[in-house]
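Data availability (excerpt). The following record was deposited with the supplementary files.
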Amino acid sequence: METRGAAARRRLRTALASVALAGAGALLLSSCAGPAASEEGSGGRPSIVATTTQVGDFTRELVGDGAEVTQLLAPAQSAHSFDPSAAQLLALSEADALVVNGAGLESWLDDAVSASGFDGVLIDASTGIELYGTDDHDHDHAADAGDEHASDEHADEAHADEASAHEGHDHGAGNPHIWTDPALAAHMVETIAAGLAEVPGIDPASVDANADTYVAKLDALDAWIRENVDTVPVADRLLVTNHDAFTYFIDAYGLTFVGSVIPSFDDNAEPSAAEIDALVERIRATGVRAVFSEASISPKAAATIAREAGVTVYSGDDALYGDSLGVAGSAGETYLGSQVHNATRILESWGVTPSPLPALLQG
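Predicted structure:
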């Protein structure tokens, strides 16, 4: 019997098939005609290129041994300023499919596709996800130390339906860090699965089965995070991060974003002295206990701000995984591992010892 997730993917892949193929064509220069995908070195399996560490991890979970997956970005490498190598462009030229985060994250993508001559199936994992714009969360609303920061009613509303929680916003320049909300990560996985089913040589039934298994883990992750965050009073769910990469996580679990060291969701931006002073004052005024660095960003500015504000800085092995997953052997090597690590460190900064992981996430 077809599962509900598989049925949804079947409907989604029908809608996505023409969009994906048209999207790939639109990204190509009209004069470019890419070579056929090479089967050499892949044992006759389809060749899939994924851009970021997150969509690379999702894609490997879905295809298993059924395809060769090449990931462009290395762990701890910024997606905002990436420049693919000649070898990576060659891999893209021979790929049957390209899986991207989308949402404007890969600003270099059009040039890479044009330069490589890629003409396979383009799968945009952000398809159907409404994006938050830069002004959707007022970072200054926490400056008043007397505020409750958020109401229980607001928190309940935020938890009501993650799949549609991002509709109705003024999007503008959208924040592309959609994977930080596990419910949106599940949406990304469903979208990738639907797109992969259109790739010649891919077994749709196997991808559907893998998607069902993985989405179940994402659902368990979401429930575990929510269960633990809900033990913390809404007014105490305060967060300061290295840059504005956790908007969707913050919204999903009813946190208050006091501010970021880098006041942008581009990790290449730099804070001014005035912005640093303002963040220190907000930290002191609100009672924030910690400043979180990120594994892929230098911790120096975060450490300086934490020191001036007299709070703890989480860096090194305790840093959050934001723009990138971690290196092999680290807590953030996989998406699931990165999210468990992030939630655990944030909860610990609030004085909470998380409950044991659900069975699906153990091992």
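Summary of structural features: The chain has eleven helices and eight strands.
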